[in-house]
Amino acid sequence: MSNATGPQSLSRLLADVPAIRRLICDARSKAATQANPQIGESAELASTPALDLPPAVAAHTQIQLLPDRLILLASNNSVAQLLRFHAPRLAKAAGVADFQVRVQPELFVGGVKKAPSKPKSVVPQGAVEPLQQAANAIDHEPLSDALRRLANLAEK
User: Fold this and answer.
1) Which of 52, 53, 114, 129 lies most in the core, judged by the most C-beta atoms within 10 Å?
2) 94 neighbors 45 (Cβ within 8 angstroms)
3) Is 35 exposed, middle or buried (0-12, 13-18, 19+ CB in 10 A)?
4) Average pLDDT of span 65-86
5) Phi/psi of residue 57, nearest 5 degrees
6) pTM of the model
7) What is the rounded average pLDDT of the residues 80-96?
8) Which domains are present in the chain?
9) Any bridge partners for residue 118, and if so which?
10) Cβ-count burial of 77 within 10 angstroms (0-12 exposed, 13-18 middle, 19+ buried)?
11) Dist. CA 92–CA 114, nearest whole Å
12) pLDDT tens digit string along 102-138?
């Protein structure tokens, strides 16, 4: 097999030169900032008109434009799957050839993971006495200990 030696796109040739790549990135960032003043120096393009997403997906997505790649950050796997569908169109609109979809739920919850809540008691108060009686009547020590622990989990 031979390698393809056809002409490359002009933007790809220019992007190979570091100084020109930086100029291209700056121009894209400036154009995105002018199109939407809410976009700052962070290069997030989530609400740029050219990169429209369905509202249900856009609420769970962050888009970052790097000099050579579009990074799509999703809050969960379902959103990531939809972004994989939209990614080629978004990359083309952003003027880059490569894209990457990542699932990062911590970006959408504020970065603070909640501690698991303590489970509520599953034993009603009326079941405590029968559990204690059964524990006292059973000769098998591990089973009677388990019944006593279960009785201690009752609502108080």
Assistant:
1) 53
2) yes
3) middle
4) 89
5) -85, -40
6) 0.42
7) 88
8) 10-107 (3.30.750), 120-156 (no CATH)
9) none
10) exposed
11) 38
12) 998 887 765 444 455 556 667 788 888 999 999 999 9
